[in-house]
């Protein structure tokens, strides 16, 4: 994944708030990366409503 790519939220690993559950199936743009708790790299995704949150890479799918 690269900054600027479009991605779709395809699954959620953990229990999360309702706001984040609402992003399931949505498409957003990769804005940045973030170090997680040692289990990998998180991807910060911004959506059309200008909200942004981070996901694990395996929760996202690149959209062409």
From TrEMBL:
Superkingdom field: Bacteria
InterPro entries (UniProt xref): Tsr0524-like (IPR021291)
Name of the featured protein: DUF2862 domain-containing protein
């Amino acid at each position: 994944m690269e900054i600027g790519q479009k991605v779709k939220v395809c699954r959620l690993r953990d229990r999360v708030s309702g706001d984040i559950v609402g992003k399931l199936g949505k498409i957003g743009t990769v804005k940045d990366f973030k170090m997680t708790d040692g289990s990998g790299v998180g991807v910060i995704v911004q959506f059309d409503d200008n909200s942004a949150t981070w996901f694990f890479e395996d929760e996202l799918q690149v959209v062409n």
